[in-house]
Fold this sequence. Notes:
By secondary structure, this protein is of the alpha/beta class. It contains 14 helices and twelve strands.
Amino acid sequence: MDISKRTALLGSESAFDVLAEVNKLKREGKEVISFCIGQPDFDTPLHIKESAIKAIRDGKTGYTDSAGVLSVRESVARYLSRTRHIDVKPEHVVIGNGAKGFIAFSVLCTTDYGVGDEVIYPNPGYPIYESQIIANGAVPIPLPLIEKKKFSFDIGELEKRITPKTKMLIINTPQNPTGGILDEDDLGEVAKLAKKHGFWIYADEIYSQIVYDGEFMSVASIPGMYERTIISDGASKSYAMTGWRMGFVANPVLAPHMARWITNLEACGNHMSQYALAEALDGPQDETKKMVATFHERRDIIVKLLNEIKGVSCLTPGGAFYAYPNVTKVVHALGMKDAVELRKLLLANGIAVLADSNFGQRNAEDEDFHLRLSYATSSENIIKGVAKMKKVLEDAQAMAGEKKGAQAAAVPNSTT
């Protein structure tokens, strides 16, 4: 029996694919230091766990409103109002089982299937953006992120991609996979274009609390932008709650329509987890601050060590917990086709990373090659893993150099 073309073309999230490879190697008894998964290596704070246990004991185990428990939506509204400096009301908020589903719901709410409606998204970027744009019948338009601009994008390149068919722009700050941040000037230019051309913005702000230099800023904070911005955030990254599956969006226009998609596909968000979400947002923030401070320390360690590897250069990310080193010189020195081959070499030597192509197609043939390393792992693992990476890459480059030298020596000198 055949499967649908939509299913056949459906993308995946490569971090989980590589994680499966890592787990297989570990089951075979091999040591692997993994930098592949974007998940805090901290436990959920105890007060958050206790709130969910209490909810279960209190019988909070049935269906809720599709948009979420009202008191929890009030917590989310307070959190967003406080952190985005805007007036978010509970009726603007929808809670779902993780933030990921809202990517699809936002495409569904703003585009029509198969009529050529376009969604612009960052490239490299979270792979589910492109996957869900295609799956839901819209046209994906990649927007290159530029290393020279600290992995922001060129506003002129954005403007060139806007057409009468543009229905939504996806922005992600702090960004996965690069750790880049859109600054106030970038967001201001985005706002001007959104107002001029009338498209929606999906603001993926799941890493909003993991910012190291300066303060996080949302495009929704710009006057006149909240109405056209779908703010997406959640508990997974900032509160070490990936498995709790608690995400939310806010928008004064689209909230009731998002809730109908929840009704159709999920019924409601996990009931007891919603009380954990409320406690995360309303309760003590000490553990989150400690976690972010630890990530900050790890960022500085991994960037320093990566920049000490021959042929590798790495910008300092402004947020999230990813390093995105440029490995173009290594790829060329080893005669490899791309960063995927480099990723495979490292995995064969017990180091798990992701390649740039795991986050989208190349924007140009001459574009540089990159790897992504998540530093949501211990400092000890970072030091040990990058030291091993340094040895593997530098030994391989030395061997490649010796091989080229031997080949050159074997070629007879031409005579006249």
